Here is the input.
Amino acid sequence: PSSCLRGALSICSNRHLEKNSVGLSIDVFRISLKFSPILGQFSKCESLSTIEIFGCRDLKTCFAALRVGENDSPIQHVKVDSGRMKDDRPSPLQVGNRLRGLEANHCDAPVTQCLLEAAVKKPLTTLGIPYCYLDNSCMSLLCDLLCNLHLQKLSLVTPRQPMNQFLPFLAHLEDLRHLEISLSKFDEKDKAFFHQVLQKYILQRLHL
Here is the structure.
């Protein structure tokens, strides 16, 4: 695993690559976090823009090593896939104020909550929680995050909960270009808010 990491690091460190042009996927489940010093070196690779993390049980260590969203790190967009924390009350994540994109995929509620908390008051343009499990705390955090008028790409697709209650927030997003959302049967208020979303004629992609 260390040789694979070092190989990827060598590629990402190539100065001939354009800035913020490379996305990197890391299967942390297969890579021990004893390699976190190597992970930390990716935060110096100006070619990187997006990191996708698979199967991590210690996001705090991983995020700290990668310096996600920090002023001196190019990594401004992070995806977490199938995250499982070590405990039910994970420690807060260290995330810098330059975080632009957060996507959590197939994560359980404690991980989803931890990630959403880290993204509050960050200048996100992308937010996704596809197929994550959400508890009441997660739903409340989503309300806060959807007040960000700079959001351009949203994925609110969940395995159980329809997202109708967030339609009023979406109706106020003037820059929204991509929308994926789980919806149930509309009532009259839902129809009115959804009509407002469509009436802006700014969506380039809509997936229901």
About this structure: The two ends are 39 Å apart (CA to CA). The longest strand covers residues 48-54. Residues 188-199 form the longest helix (12 residues). Strands lie at 22-27, 48-54, 77-81, 101-105, 126-128, 153-156, 178-181, 205-207.
